[in-house]
Amino acid sequence: MILQLICGILIMALSLSLFFVLRYMRKHQTRNDEGTQKA
C-alpha cells in the first residue's frame, strides 16, 4: 500500500512537471524556434 502511494505521488509529480514544461516551451516556441531546435 505504501508503494502504491509513492508511485501515485511520483506519477502526479511527473505529469505536473511535464505539463509545466510543455506550457513553458509553447510560450517560448514562437519567439525562438530555431534556438529550441538546436538545443
TrEMBL record:
Organism: uncultured bacterium contig00023
Protein known as: Uncharacterized protein
Keyword check for Transmembrane: yes
TM annotation in the entry: 6-25
Superkingdom, taxonomy of origin: Bacteria
UniProt KW keywords: Membrane, Transmembrane, Transmembrane helix
